[in-house]
Amino acid sequence: MPRDTGFPVADAENDFLRMRRRQVLSRLGAWLRREPDDVNIMLPFDEVVAALGRVGERRLGLRVIPLDSIIGSVDRTRDFDRRFRPTSGMSRQRWERLALAQRRGEAIPPIEVFRVGELHFVVDGHHRVSVAHAMGLRTIDAYVTEIVTRISAEGIRYRGDLIVKDFRRIFLDRVPLDDQARDAISLTDPWDYAALSEAVEAWGFRLMQDERRFLDRATVANRWYAEEFVPVVTMVRQAGMIASQTEAEAYLWVIAERYRLIRTHRWDDAVITALRARA
To answer: Its domain of life (predicted)?
Structure first.
């Protein structure tokens, strides 16, 4: 909680200086710890939505939202850091006026945000969010517009996470799985989504050759999941070959090793035994 000396003007000035000091120390600490550059950077709304794939939006009206869920901005990403600490003294007068009003108990208008999953991005009210953090508040009133996206925002913490989300979205365009199957496919390295896309399309091409008929992407995707991915992952798991990696990562490894070692697309006990010996 902020200190209260009984002199609201001086206290508001100290509030701003305290937030600026914290921002500078946080940036210095990240540099000394050699943390990635995006640790303290506010997430840009446009990049997040582009990575997830925008489907639509709907107005939710006035809501009370957690301050910690506000992690980005529509257009003010350089003025504040990830915790809405001012990155310069340019907006000091405006900030202190809001802090003074807050300390005097004056009514503060709700902010306006976009909601993506459980995350919120400020459209209007950056200084109000910053002051609320300085005051030690946990929630804030906001007019919320929910943005519906093609894939979930779950797991996004930093700007670097958007690369994985972007590749996953492209993968699901190429391999349009049903919801249950989609949730089962998880990869850490974004490039693995490209490799898995190629593998599924190659499997679908062989399937169409065998059946001598055309199959659309959705049919290929869901037959691949049911007839190839699930049985292979089951065999690999039973053979004790899945350790810390995800099932999709284990699948990518075994299909690459199978073809490299045995030059075959078939699956049987002999193949699994040979792969287990190489694991």
So the answer is: Bacteria
Q: Over the stretch 114-149, which tens digit does the pLDDT of each residue have? A: 999 999 999 999 999 999 988 889 999 999 999 999
Give the dihedral of Cα atoms 108, 115, 83, 124; nearest 10 deg: -40
Same domain (yes/no): 62, 193:
no
Neighbour count for residue 73 (Cβ, 10 Å): 23
Other beta carbons less than 10 A from residue 36's beta carbon: 11
Segment 243-251 long-range contacts (CB within 8 Å, at least 24 positions apart): 246/186, 246/187, 246/188, 247/184, 247/186, 248/184, 248/185, 248/186, 248/187, 248/192, 248/196, 249/187, 249/188, 249/192, 251/196
Give percent of the chain above pLDDT 90.
Answer: 44
Q: Above 50 in pLDDT, residue 35?
A: no
- In the chain, how many domains are there? 2
In CATH, what number is assigned to the domain containing residue 93? 3.90.1530.10
- 20 and 81 both lie in a single domain: yes
In a domain, 159, yes or no: no
Residue 185 lies in a domain: yes
Q: In what order do the strands lie in the sheet with 54-66?
A: 43-44, 70-73, 119-124, 111-116, 139-149, 54-66
142 and 180 together in one domain: no
Q: Please say whether the beta carbons of 77 and 46 come within 8 A.
A: no
List C-alpha distances in Å: 260 to 92, 131, 212, 265. Answer: 63, 59, 27, 11
Domain that holds residue 182: 175-278
Q: Is residue 230 part of a domain?
A: yes
18 and 104 assigned to the same domain: yes
Residue 161 falls inside a structural domain: no
